[in-house]
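[job 4471] stage=fold_predict status=RUNNING
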Amino acid sequence: MYSLPTASPDKRVTGRDLPRADAAVKVTGKAVYNTDIVRPGMLHAKVLRSPHAHARIVSIDASAAQALDGVTAVLTRNETDGLACYGTMVKDQPVVATDAVRYVGDIVAAVAAVDERTALAALDLIQVEYEILPAIFDVDEALDPSSPTIHPLEPRGGLPPYRNGASASLRSDHNVSYEFRYSTGSSEVWEECDHIFEDTFLFSRMNHMHLEPFVTVAEATDEQIEVWTATQSPFNLRQELGHVFNLPENRIRVHVALLGGAFGAKNGPKADPVAIRLSQLSGGRPVRFCMSTEEGFLTVSQHAAKLIVKAGVKADGTFIARQSTVLLDSGAYAEHSPAVAEKAGYRMPGAYRWQHIDTVCKAVTTNTVPAGAMRGFGATQTTWAGERQIDLIAQRLGIDPYALRLKNLKKLGEEFVPGDAGIDSDLAEGMRLVADAIGYHSRDRSGNRGMGVCVGLKDSGGGNKPAMARVKVTANGDVFLNCALTEMGQGGHSAMSQIVADVLRTSRDRVAYTGIDTDHTPFDQGTNASSGVVVMGQAVRNAAENLRSQVLAWAGEQFTLDPATAVLDNWTVRTPTGEVYPLFERIMEFFGHTGFEFSADGYYKVRNDADAPLAARCVFYEIGWAAAEVEVDPETGKVTVLQLAVSGDAGKVINKIGCRGQDEGAAVLGLAQALFEEMRYENGELLNAEALLYRVALAEDLPERFVSITQEQGHGAGPFGAKGMGEGGMLPIAPAIAQAIADAVGAQLTELPMTPERVFRALSTGGVPGLPPLSHA
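[job 4471] inference complete, writing structure tokens
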């Protein structure tokens, strides 16, 4: 017998500090991740990787491996006929290397066997003959017309629409896969500048270091593909696999369980093509390809970058013009580099008002690990250079860097650039909050201590991202939420469930998040660009509201009441005059006790806009503010972060602890990149490509005082005024620490990470030639 809930919620569940919906299964070990998937008769895959940075494949002999007992298939270039290359905008990455290998770690061959031990033994039997080719490891060398061409044949590719000052091209220069340009305002304003400064900044390369590896289980034939895989974008993956294997999308099925972290790395094919092809070659038996942590280092990384920034200013510090050249090291294949380059180029204005902007960003091909999407997505590189130059300008002009920022920050509602949406946060208020949190304005700069305050900004939500969702409710009021937002530790499933619970005025515990299956789950472009709460959140909210309207309309007919004034509350209908109508009994009576489900879909996408440079206006701006206090040891160059305050604007909080976790997690990534985290290359070989050698942030690296402030300024485009979070907190950390170092000892750093060696070197030179001494007045 169904029992009606005794009490209705007395307030919204959004904005509350509720436990994560997946907390219990995760802490008890019951949660199922993609790495846990097992299929009957499952085989295991291992891959042979190139030991050379650049070489022509002369021959491959895999006959001995194929003959090994327990091996079901060997994949080399000989088994890739009809398979296309993949990549975002530029499709240049093959399933396995065909004509040449292009970086140390490039996949040359793959084996499927009854167990991993047999697969590894088979790899040792594969004979590959190489002809070594000249390799390029630096973006400047790659752009030199006399250097080798890494991709002699032009790959397939395409460009999205651009408008109002934005443009792009493919293969615009030697070893450039994609180039983005943005310009606005008149170049004549350079003549009005009292000072013109040009500086060069270097940004280091990081690994994503997600705990769950790249993993795929595939069951495939020439006519049908089904995968269980760790991906942030199941529908994009389905589309890309259709392109690679020349199959219609209705022959491809993608399942996604919980992800053990991603940070952008799990966009696009990773382990999938190899697992699928080996399954096809093994008669359709399931094949599991699970990379090791070390192999993750050889699959995708963040972009290293060189940024040349020229700024024109008035004597009083008014910003006039900014010209930028951004060179992203995209590695051996384009991967997500075109999309990152687009955003890096577009985000160069930062949070400030410029009369003229002229930016070019190039994705430069080198013989290193491919670079792709990572938390911050181009804004980390541009915020480092842009904020650092503002500090250098402040020193040159003798203006306090905090005051210089306030003077030039965009106002609430002011267009980011002509044709785009207005800024949806009070930037000055965020600066004040983090500065006050560490006592910036009353700081004691003795004892080699100093402070810095910075702000980072990125357009977020993905203007061209459509999202769909479906909400169902059973006869007794149990709710199913079906959407393709992937849960990778950010708490997205909890947030979506809270939105549904609020709309339907029920407990979040009654909302179940169904599994992601592209055959049955409504379409979503992907869980990226911090879009979950805003873009998918609005689709979910719309679906829940459509469902509520449907239920109330049915109830109106059944109980002869006005659905426009009635309220759905804990699976009862309440009228303004106080009548309460339970739904369960009436539903069962009406449908002959067979039960029933109400179901409704929701959709959201920001409108296309002919005036917007990227063809659609920004959904929301993700902004991070940071303030840091450091102490520098002048004898060693060691930097100790004493205080770190980070803040983001949630617009309207959906889950309080979730918002805090996003900002603090992003800040710790920024702290690591600022001081020590870096993928280190020597002659094309990655020296620290394993977990024991790669330095990530530890609990002991956290400052003694670490503060996060979640703002709710209320101007977001998401449900109830919410904005996305998760990336903004990373953007300002490194430049804030750099300015604090300069404030403490006068050393201006222009390269990441700011290791003791680099700080010590900058102590004797000032870091940037020609800078006047930093005043401690």
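[job 4471] summary: The chain is about 25% helix and 25% strand.
[job 4471] exit 0
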